[in-house]
TrEMBL record, chain A:
Protein name, entry field: 2-octaprenyl-6-methoxyphenyl hydroxylase
The keyword Cell membrane is annotated on this UniProt entry: no
Family, similarity comment: Belongs to the UbiH/COQ6 family.
Keyword Cell membrane part of the UniProt annotation: no
Length: 420, 257
């Protein structure tokens, strides 16, 4: 028996890791840190050169972190670094409105005072989150960070998967995780097809400065063209996510900052006083792209690579973090049992756990958007009554809040603030 | 870095067994390890069995399951190893594993899969009695879902006890004997769900937990723990139970030092 020779090949393989993560965005970073905390060795592969500057300028991008997501960030040592830069969302007001007409009499109001756990979530700027992740990753000996070269190939190799990075040595791992976004090359190379849906809208994203304080209140206006979310940042600033038709969005994008504010003003209203642009502006075409499978041979998908959804409920990053929390829990449990972490029975557990959540969330954001993005009088009456009802019944109201905070369902340990 | 094609990493048995045979073994190994195939019920139960076994061994031998290779230095026997569903995890945790099966065809199948997984496991076509007669000694013996199939349970368990070093541990699982286990394990699993081939189990050979504890004591072991394996049809998964030992259950016993 020449088993010893085989063992030697496995253990002496250079660049051998437990897990290779393709895509070093926020979800990939969080997953890498979670897995490293569970004792796994991780190769984190990012195609772009990563900007490691701690003094990065604010570029206008920010995220809504559900309460459960902040708990995960605490466990992996990130939250303490960024908490001082986070703006708690104390209240959420949802209003059905037409521009220039003001809100309809029917609206929903969610106040964190009704929720024993605290604020429903926090707003955090991209730069603070990213810098904290990069610092934590460089201090984590279990993570090897490859940056600046894309993955160009992947193939199964018996008990492992081999990942080819352009101009670099190959990396071997027991499991490959695709966190490479809506156009995931990892999923494509594995032959995973996607279901795609264009919403006919583009989201305009920007940070807005305003005269008056926001008081930690987030607003969601449902306008005929699409929703406008106003989310409180630290100081007298808010982040807006403003959905318009592709054509109108292209017009607005082309305007200089003053023109942009002029176009925004009727939808935004004047409750926060005079407005100004406080950072770069972005636009994203809105679509839903769901991978038809969450797993394949020695492969799991998380975040947008698995399911890119409508940003209407601000759940994109939160959903990706939830995927990562579930996957790392499944993997660390498997490792403690001595199971092969890349084997189908293990990956099936992750897929089973996440598929219910992702189906309901994709359907909910989809339905929500189509119900609210129109001016049909009957639809408007229907949704106004619905909102009035939710607002009037405390139990329903708390249910919505707990859902938004990520506290419902079969919650992974990390999202409950527990270590793996 | 070493470039290895999968064909080069085949079992070294290529020297003694022809390629068609190897292909057959690989196909059978794939069948054993397909979570949705013929052995689906075993795959569904496996995480729960492994949770129990790993925690019992870790507690007894004072090992930390979060450490790399926590079972390093332990010699473990997997009786009735089949395709290696328990042997491989034990080897991955660092144990020195012997997998024994009375069915000869399982041995090359398990071996091929262990080679593919890069694990070194000593698979043998043999029985507990033969290993005991040869004077083999182990820190732990995994005796899972076997005792309900043997002709003389006491003689079999005595052989298993002889295989343990003083202070060694044996996990032993089987199926309880009562009207519910008849309905669930035979009518349900074999006839309704068709999880197992009809005739896999004979109800009269099932053993109650008290009877098993009694047999283990007679075999010279000290039974220390018993838990139920309970199937939850809503979650569609198995879990461990302190109270419900009505159908599948597992025990731990120790050999006095």
């Amino acid at each position: 028996m020449d088993n010893v020779g085989i063992m030697r090949i496995f253990s002496c393989m250079k660049n051998r890791y437990d897990i290779a993560i393709v895509g070093g965005g926020l979800n990939g970073c969080a997953l890498a840190l979670a897995l490293a905390s569970g004792g796994f060795t991780v190769a984190l592969i990012e195609a772009h050169k990563t900007q490691g500057s701690a003094k990065t300028q604010f570029d206008g991008r920010s995220y809504a972190l559900a309460l459960a997501s902040t708990r995960l960030l605490s466990v992996i040592g990130i939250w303490d670094q960024i908490a001082e830069h986070a703006q708690p969302m104390l209240e959420i007001k949802v209003t059905d409105g037409r521009p220039g007409e003001g809100p309809s009499p029917f609206w929903m109001h969610f106040d964190h005072a009704e929720l024993e756990e605290g604020p429903m979530g926090y707003m955090i700027e991209d730069r603070h989150l990213r810098d904290a992740f990069l610092a934590a990753i460089s201090n984590q000996p279990n993570i090897t960070h490859f940056t600046g070269a894309p993955v160009i190939g992947q193939k199964g190799l018996g008990g492992a998967v081999e990942v080819e990075i352009e101009g670099e040595e190959t990396v071997n791992a027991s499991l490959l995780v695709g966190c490479d976004g809506r156009k995931s090359g990892t999923a494509q190379r594995a032959g995973i097809t996607r279901s795609f849906k264009d919403y006919g809208q583009t989201a305009l994203v920007a940070a807005i400065g305003h005269e008056k304080p926001h008081g930690g209140i987030a607003h969601q206006f449902f306008l005929p063209a699409g929703p406008l979310a106003i989310l409180p940042l630290t100081g007298n600033r808010s982040s807006i996510v403003w959905a318009e038709s592709h054509d109108r969005a292209a017009e607005i994008s082309a305007l200089p900052d003053e023109g942009f504010i002029e176009a925004l003003q009727p939808a935004f209203g004047d409750f926060l006083g005079a407005l100004s642009v406080a950072g770069a502006r972005f636009s994203y075409p809105l679509n839903q792209t769901l991978a038809d499978q969450l797993t394949a041979d020695r492969l799991a998908l998380i975040g947008d690579a698995a399911h890119g959804i409508h940003p209407i409920a601000g759940q994109g990053l939160n959903q990706g973090l939830r995927d990562g929390a579930a996957l790392s829990e499944v993997l660390v449990d498997a490792k403690r049992r001595g199971e092969d972490i890349g084997a189908a029975p293990v990956l099936d557990r992750y897929a089973d756990w996440r598929s219910f959540d992702r189906t309901t969330l994709a359907l909910a954001t989809d339905t929500f958007n189509s119900m609210f993005s129109n001016d049909n009088p009957l639809m408007r009456l229907g949704r106004d009554i619905g909102m009035g009802l939710v607002n009037a019944v405390p139990g329903l109201r708390r249910g919505f809040m707990r859902e938004a905070a990520g506290l419902t369902g079969d919650v992974p340990r990390l999202l409950r603030g527990q270590p793996l | 870095m070493p470039k290895t094609k999968s064909t080069e990493r085949l079992s070294p048995m290529t020297t003694t067994v022809d390629t068609a045979e190897i292909a057959k073994f690989e196909a059978m190994a794939a069948e054993w390890w397909d979570p949705n195939g013929k052995f689906k019920p075993l795959h569904m139960l496996n995480p729960c069995r492994l949770d129990y076994i790993t925690r019992q061994i870790a507690a007894e031998f004072d090992r930390d399951l979060d450490a790399p290779k926590p079972f390093d230095g332990l010699r473990i026997l997997d009786i009735g190893c089949g395709g290696g569903l328990l042997s491989e995890p034990m080897a991955r945790l660092g144990a020195d594993v012997v997998g024994a099966d009375a069915a000869e065809r399982n041995i090359p199948v398990a071996q091929v899969h262990a080679d593919q997984s890069g694990l070194q496991i000593d698979y043998r076509h043999t029985t507990a009695e033969a290993l005991a007669a040869a004077g083999e000694q182990f820190d732990a013996v995994l005796n899972m879902e076997v005792v309900e199939h043997v002709a003389d349970p006491l003689a079999y368990l005595t052989a298993c006890a002889d295989l343990l070093k003083p202070g060694g541990l044996m996990t032993c699982s089987t199926i309880n004997r009562n009207p519910k286990s008849f309905v669930v394990a035979i009518l349900g699993a074999e006839y309704v769900m068709r999880w197992l081939p009809k005739g896999t189990h004979e109800w009269s050979k099932f053993i109650t937990p008290d009877e098993l504890f009694d047999l283990l004591s007679k075999a010279g072991l000290e039974p220390v723990d018993r838990k139920g394996f309970v199937f939850n049809p809503v979650a569609w998964s198995w879990s461990l139970s302190d109270r419900d030992l009505t159908v599948n259950y597992v025990t731990t016993s120790l050999k006095p030092a």
